[in-house]
Automatic annotation (TrEMBL):
Belongs to the RRN3 family. One of its GO terms (biological process) is transcription initiation at RNA polymerase I promoter. It comes from Parasteatoda tepidariorum (Common house spider). Coiled coil: none annotated. This is RNA polymerase I-specific transcription initiation factor RRN3. It comes from the Eukaryota. InterPro entries: RNA_pol_I_trans_ini_fac_RRN3 (IPR007991). One of its GO terms (molecular function) is RNA polymerase I general transcription initiation factor activity. GO terms for cellular component: nucleus.
């Protein structure tokens, strides 16, 4: 298909992919089929590691942004992703964590969706118990260290949200990674760009910026509007509270960062 051959491999594609976003809004089966297609691509070892990671980014973006994706679909996808993550942790003992980009991308997708849909997740019957069953503590403390490789803004929001709702406390891992940052600066370029390493974060369904056609997208589009600062406990340090909701809302996709900057300059 055109999506498979052209759109999916294009990391900095800004708006064409919204055709799929809109099509999926027309019928639940289309949305379920799209998510199933993406998840199969993530799991397929015959697919290139870059395509697998982009597919994970698409899953995270659809589950987070699409209003037509029910919370039951989110929990079902969480079950699939967490089971895959824990099996991956069990199966991989290699300390060469730089080659586990697909694993890190799936973890990041879960962190991203978790922060977007946390209120709905907790409002479900046994929602808190379900989130605990995903065992985020094991994920973030495993030797593959996903928090080190995931986008910093996503990590900060996940850490704040998980702490506020007592799902997981991940700041010790973040602090350890920060202490090791100086050491990582001495890693060779070849190591940091090894085959299988995590590619630059790209969430394809960042806020839609085309004014003339946004009427078709806005009714189906979820804006990130959680505020952690009001919920934070007083005894946490300033570093732990350093969360930028605006950056998280726009993710860090290079295409949208560039386009948004151009539009802002054009509007004066």
């Amino acid at each position: 298909t055109i999506f498979d051959k052209v759109i999916l491999p294009t990391q900095e594609c800004c708006h064409v992919q919204y055709l799929m976003f809109y099509i999926c809004s027309l019928k639940q089966d289309l949305c379920d089929g799209f998510l199933d297609y993406l998840w199969k691509k993530v799991q397929d070892l015959k697919v290139g590691f870059i395509y697998r990671q982009i597919a994970a980014f698409y899953i995270g973006s659809v589950l987070s942004r699409a209003k037509y994706v029910s919370i039951n679909t989110v929990t079902a996808c969480f079950d699939l992703m967490s089971s895959w993550i824990h099996r991956y942790i069990n199966a991989h003992t290699s300390q060469d964590v730089g080659v586990h980009g697909t694993f890190h991308s799936v973890c990041q997708a879960m962190f991203y969706v978790f922060s977007f849909r946390i209120k709905e997740l907790l409002n479900m019957p046994d929602g808190y118990r379900h989130l605990q069953s995903l065992n985020f503590d094991r994920i973030v403390t495993c030797r593959l260290n996903p928090l080190k490789y995931c986008d910093k803004t996503i990590v900060q929001n996940f850490a704040s949200t998980a702490r506020n709702h007592q799902i997981a406390y991940v700041y010790p891992v973040i602090e350890k990674n920060n202490r090791n940052l100086l050491y990582s600066a001495f890693e060779s370029k070849e190591e940091s760009n090894s085959t299988g390493s995590m590619i630059r974060t790209f969430f394809p369904f960042d806020p839609y910026l085309l004014k003339k056609s946004k009427q078709w997208i806005e009714p189906h589009f979820r804006i990130y509007n959680h505020s952690h600062k009001e919920e934070d406990l007083e005894d946490h340090t300033d570093d732990e509270m350093d969360v930028n909701d605006e950056l998280f809302s726009y993710s860090c996709s290079p295409g949208f960062t560039r386009v948004r900057s151009v539009l802002k300059d054009a509007n004066g």
